[in-house]
Each structure stands twice: as structure tokens, then as C-alpha cells.
Specification:
It comes from Pandoraea eparura. Pfam families: DUF493. The chain has one domain. α1 packs antiparallel against α2. The chain has a four-stranded antiparallel sheet with strand order 2-3-1-4, with helices on one face. It has 90 residues and is an alpha+beta fold. The protein contains two helices and four strands; from the N terminus they run βαββαβ. The radius of gyration is 15 Å and the shape is globular.
């Protein structure tokens, strides 16, 4: 019996939601959209969902990216986590 080990449970290309959190500040959402457009020129800023924290100190964004491969998705995560305005990426 042979089993084929898949590198990922995802089938690419796929739409993949990512949560990005940072301090509430002018330009945060725009900076994240600009970063995502480096990976997908057609990323639609109108699809970004924004939720402020209960105290208003932080802003959570849910962005849905079009991932073409596991490596592409990994590159997006690395760019987001390395951005100076980003505190957490889930």
C-alpha cells in the first residue's frame, strides 16, 4: 500500500484569508494593501474587513489573498510579519 504525502492540504491556486493586527494608526490598512499588491497586483482593497479592538488601540484586518503555491503564501506571511506596522499575523 502506497500513500502519497502531500506537501499541503490546500489546493493551489486558492483564496486564503489572513488576519493582520497592528496599532490603530493612519495608513495601516493602506500599507497592508500596498504590500499585498506586491504579491497580487489585482488585490482588491474593497475586500479588506476592518475591526477595531474593544479599546480602539489596535486594528484587525482580514485580507483574503489569492495564493498560487505554498511558497507564494509563505512569502506573503514573511512580508506581513516583517512589516514594521504589523504586530500579529494569523
Amino acid at each position: 500500500m502506497t500513500t502519497e504525502k502531500k506537501e499541503s492540504l490546500l489546493e493551489f491556486p486558492c483564496d486564503f484569508p489572513i488576519k493582520v493586527m497592528g496599532a490603530t494608526q493612519d495608513g495601516f490598512a493602506d500599507a497592508i494593501v500596498a504590500l499585498l499588491r506586491e504579491f497580487d497586483a489585482e488585490f482588491d482593497a474593497a475586500t479588506v474587513e476592518m475591526r477595531p479592538s474593544s479599546t480602539g488601540k489596535y486594528l484587525g484586518l482580514t485580507v483574503t489573498v489569492r495564493a498560487h503555491s505554498k511558497a507564494h503564501l509563505d512569502d506573503i506571511y514573511r512580508a506581513l510579519t516583517g512589516h514594521p506596522m504589523v504586530k500579529v499575523v494569523l
